[in-house]
Amino acid sequence: MNLVNQRIMKCMMNKRQTGFWKEKPLQKMTRKEWELLCDGCGRCCLEKLKDAKNGKVYYTNLACRYLDLKTCRCTIYAHRTRIAPDCEWLNPFKIARFRWLPKTCAYRLVMETKDLAWWHPLISGDPETVHLAGISVKNIAVSSLGVPEDEYEDYILDNNLWAKSARI
Q: CA neighbours within 13 Å on the CB side: how many for 51?
């Protein structure tokens, strides 16, 4: 078994599901706890298209120009809402409105009183497991910079892209 598979197996064996996210609702979390819930997948930073007829949201592989495609972290995080006014500011009081969040998102899972996945850094103790598990946008996303909005449909991702990883 190679080193990556060993790390994955070790994390999958860790079924520890105790922590602040199990003890208090999202609205009672400190800012630090809220930020720790983010798994660093980068999916919320992908451009999304909403079907006007049925309301279905489609993810593209186009990332916000401020997303670091290697780390899947925002390069302007502290100032994102000022610099990028279209950026959706996730917070505990608005989270229920963000139905487009992936089913693997810790904010959504905690809101739905579900367990975090084995690859979540709070469970695995390793921020790289989100990438090793194939959950993040690393190696999938490209910058939206220079792509006209009328071409975004050309970048829609297959709905099943993360389905297998999400069940692991």
A: 8
- Could you give the dihedral angle defined by the CA atoms of residues 120, 125, 127 and 129, in that order, rounded to the nearest 10 degrees? -60
- Alpha-carbon distances of 117 from 4, 8, 88, rounded to whole Å: 17, 12, 24
Residues 117/123, Cβ–Cβ less than 8 Å: yes
Cα-only R_g, the chain: 16
Residue appearing with tokens 């079924």: 15
Alpha helices per DSSP H over the chain: 3-13, 20-23, 31-37, 80-83, 106-111, 121-124, 129-132, 163-167
Q: How far is CA 55 from CA 7, 157, 158, 163, in A?
A: 39, 17, 17, 20
Instruction: Please write the tens of the pLDDT for every residue from 67-116.
Output: 999 999 999 999 988 898 888 888 888 888 888 899 999 999 999 999 99
Distance in angstroms (rounded) separating the CA atoms of residues 120 and 128? 9
Rounded distance between C-alpha atoms, residue 98 and residue 112, angstroms? 13
pLDDT in tens, 133-151: 999 999 999 999 999 999 9
Identity of residue 130: V
Half-sphere exposure of 167 (CA within 13 A, CB side): 4
